[in-house]
Amino acid sequence: MCDLSICQEALNRDPVLYLDLTEAVRRGEGHVVAALPHGALAAFRNYGRELGFTMFADDLETAQALLSLLPPDPGFLTVHEDIYRAELQKRFGFDRLNPCWQLGWLRPAPPPLPDVAADIRQLNQSHLPTVLANYSLTDEEYLSELIGRGELHGAFNGNTLMAFIGRHAEGSIGLLEVLPQYRRRGLATLLQSYMIGLELSRGRVPYGQVFDGNDASLALQQSLGMSRSMGLLYWAVRDD
After folding, report:
1. Which residues, at least 6 apart from 166, have a Cβ–Cβ distance to it below 8 Å?
2. pLDDT digit string (tens) for 18-59?
3. What is the pLDDT of residues 84-142, one digit of tens each?
4. CA-to-CA distance for 192 and 195, rounded, in angstroms?
């Protein structure tokens, strides 16, 4: 079976940047499609199906070799360089690369949970309308599936949902949203700390992405002790 040992030196230059690739493979939620000295392509696989791909390539020649292995519609795709932006547009019709910082928790113990007046519980389908009304970066089907699999958690005051967070299908922590009327109560810190602890308890390295320019979210992550990548990761996007 193909592994990442051939490109380990390249991956070691910025370990946090490549966590979405290396951690997915380590967890068994992804597998290596191809690995070369200066690049690798991995497929995300979870919930019994292929979800998409992630790759890195140090040069255009390596990128072209790896891109040739992708299906005509690779679905969800993250890349770690923008040097092959034109290739992604030409081959697959990706119009944009949305830049993100990758963050990872590299410590053995989780951050302490702050003293915030809230209970943390898994969401159920009755909470889907509230999630949809407050989170617009994905669709109802995906959110409903995550809820059904127990991947979304909320901060509650009694039966009132005040904030939520989740684990994406490919393995990253995300979907963090505090409802407007409950902001500035420490709920984001509470939920992010909780998810870091939950992932660690399951033997995973917690990681996630923050859009470049989202300074408030980046500050939150780093205040907790999350390590930031040196370089940017990119989500490939079609504008249709």
Report:
1. 146, 151, 152, 153, 173, 174, 175
2. 999 999 999 999 999 999 999 999 999 877 778 899 999 999
3. 999 999 999 999 999 999 999 999 999 999 999 999 999 999 999 999 999 988 889 99
4. 5
Pick from 31, 47, 38, 23: which is nearest to 199 by CA? Answer: 23
Phi-psi domain of 47 (left: phi exceeds 0; alpha: psi -120 through 50; beta: other): left
